[in-house]
Amino acid sequence: MKNFCKYSLSALFLLYLYSGMFFNVGNIKNSMILVVDSLGEKSIKTVVTDFEKEVNENFYRKMDMVDVNGAFKKFCGQKIVNGTILGSNDKLYAQDVIEQELDWDRERKNLDYTLKLMEHAEKNGAITLYVQHPDKYDIDKDELPYGMTVARTERDNYFVDSIKKSGKNVLDLREDKYGAKEFYKTDHHWTVESSFSADQAIMEYLDTLVDLDGVEEKNSIENYDKITYTKSLLGSNGIRTGEFYVGKDDYSILIPKFETDYLFQRYDSNEKLSWEKKGGISKFLLIWIY
Amino acid sequence: MLRKEVRMLFSSTVFIFCFLPLTILTYFATPRKYLEVRNGVLLIFSIGFYAWGEPKFVLIMLFSILGNYFVGLCIDKRKHAKLFLEIGIAFNISIIFIFKYLNFAIANINELLSHVFLENEMVRVPQTEISLPIGISFFTFQAISYIIDVYRKKVDVQKNPFYLGLYISFFPQLIAGPIVRYTDINVAIIERKESWEKFNVGVKRFIFGLAKKVILSNNMALIADRAFADAADNRITTMLAWLGIVAYTLQIFFDFSGYSDMAIGLGKIFGFDFNENFNYPYISKSVSEFWRRWHISLGSWFRDYVYFPLGGSRVKTRSRLIFNLFVVWLLTGIWHGASWNFIVWGLLYFVLITFEKISGYPEKLKTKIVKFLYRVFTLISVMFGWVIFRAEGMRNAGKYLFALVGIGVNGFIDNVFIQFFMENVILLVFSILLATPLVDEVLRRIKLKDTVLGDIYTSVICMLLLIVCSSYLVLESYNPFIYFNF
């Protein structure tokens, strides 16, 4: 027993090394094949760097490594982890977006284009509506650590204020009353529920501008079945930190109870129609897409 | 001063999951009675290790091995031994000069010429395209110690060029030391006994070294890099300057001692015993003591092959003593890199150590409080030295040193400091604790060593550290290479 315990470290170390090697044999081989082809074109330094990158990129069960890394960084109390930033609301934000600086010349040009497009459409008899979608990065300063700020909020305010001033229709979904501000903690996307609320708000607004058919039926949540997959989603930020860092998100889908009639078509790489089905959205979402 | 180098590092997935398992497998699959074959295995893998990313530099190393092999044989014949020793030393110094210092020398000559010939661009020496082979300072110093020891008859000449090749190129100590003397491993090359006992100690040492490098040093590097960059851009605050200097002090210690630990551990796995290279240098009571605890193999190399031959401390005049110290510390600075920063850094130690030698401090100091203050002075001096060592150019070193006392700063404290401090506070605390013998002392007192419970704890902690390190490496976290100058 004593000897077993004494040498257990060596045994575990060797086991770890050789399992790591064994399970990555395919990875190493593929990485080598990939970089060997470029030997003539690239310097040996670049080829070696590419090889190491490939091996790391395709490391066996890499997500387990991400989980370990995230768990360790959580233990260390770190809030900036592998390119993400943890807010005080327990949500993850992409570091590059937080640190992004706005090019105001470009934003002014974008605003100008938007206004021109709206005017052009109106001149041709269309009704226009500028919808300002909520952004996960429209956050208060105190929700981010270390006094960080985000420039995007300022840009969105600039767009909404300017377009309102020019007398155009504006729907600012960032307002609390629309209930459309929920985002996944591990991803930058809206939750399905939030996007449904946003859809409701847009439809209602449009209904005031033009009389739309069946808005009430489509807009009522009662007319949908909701299926929730708890702790099932690790979004684009979550896959950088692993599930032990902030956990996973619940993910829901909404299936209309009312009749829907869709035509689904799939085209191959030669842009030829390869598959076609007709049916309701539930069949598409739950059966065909998988 | 950090550069992305394409090298096989101990702290890389390719080394841990490919190179090391293959080396261990091939080595131990060879029956023990064929020690020559086992040595051959180690030599081949060592050359492969060095060739990774920059194969052309292998030729330089092989050239050095062959040159020193023949010089050793010539010295051993005892006819014109001194002449051959001088040729051997000149040979090694030429190699290191050409590959490490030539461009630096040319840059300085051009600087001088620019003052003499002002605008005339024609009167300039062209820079060469020669790049620095990694680890050249380490293997060249090992080679020099070999021929000197053969000359001094401290060791028998190695008649097998492959064994000499193994001594110079053995991959654990090849690129970042410790500087192993031939006298330390000549017996092990021809008769060594690997054992599970040694293997186990080696594994433990390797993992602790890896954790020092990957978890502590690399994270400290993030703080230090930001602080030095901000200082160069004139946007540093006083607090960030202090955080940066503390972080760099820890980074370089854990980086270098981590590499030494990994080297010693790998050596043990294959049955070799390398000498210790670090002994908690930051607790030193004096600057002289610091250098007996920091990079011990380099300090003792200069002591045995430069300082003592010059007469050491047993000289008749004080001026001779000062001259001897000047030579040693100038060379120590130059050894670390071809830049004025390293020369100034070396001369800083010349000043401090000369002061201690002549004044008799801190031994002369009487009260505990004064001795404690001298200990603080030592640590601060070492830290200020690291600023000169780390900064890019003397101008930036000056800026950083001024920032520490609030001159030329962008305020006292800012969010950048808060961010870097808060993000790393736990790692900073661990780093500071592990830079002292406190943890060792606690472990010694609770008497866990050599108990079943102690072995279980060690295995669990080591494996957890190994897995965490692997996660950092697979995710390609920041992994700077600090030794490219050496």
Give the overall form of chain A: extended
> Based on CA inertia axes, which overall geometry of chain B fits?
globular
Task: Please tally the β strands of chain B and state the result.
Answer: 0
Class computed from helices, strands and strand pairing of chain A: alpha+beta
What does the oligomeric state look like here? heterodimer
Major sheet: arrangement of strands of chain A: 1-2-3
Tell me the strand percentage band of chain A: 15-25%
**What structural category arises from helix and sheet content of chain B?**
mainly alpha
Proportion of residues in β-strands of chain B: under 5%
The SSE order of chain A reads HHHHEEEHHEHEHHEHHEEEH
Question: Which protein chains make the most extensive interface, counting residues with beta carbons within 8 Å of the other chain's beta carbons?
Answer: A-B, 45 and 48 residues
What gap, in angstroms, lies between the N and C termini of chain B? 12 Å
Report the major sheet of chain B.
Answer: none
Q: Any overview of this molecule?
A:
With 290 residues, chain A is α+β, with helices and mostly antiparallel strands. In chain A, the strands form four sheets. Chain A has a three-stranded antiparallel beta sheet. Chain A has a two-stranded parallel ribbon with strand order 4-5. In chain A, strands 6-7 form a two-stranded antiparallel ribbon. The mean pLDDT of chain A is 89. In chain A, helix 7 links the parallel strand 4 and strand 5 (170-172). Helix content of chain A is 48%, strand content 16%. Chain A is built from twelve helices and nine strands. Chain A is extended and about 85 Å long. Chain A has helices at residues 2-23, 25-36, 44-57, 62-75, 95-98, 104-123, 152-165, 192-209, 215-219, 238-241, 243-246, 281-288; strands at 80-81, 84-86, 92-94, 130-132, 170-172, 224-233, 249-256, 262-267, 273-279. The N and C termini of chain B lie close together (12 Å). Chain B is mostly helical. The chains are: A alpha+beta (290), B mainly alpha (486).
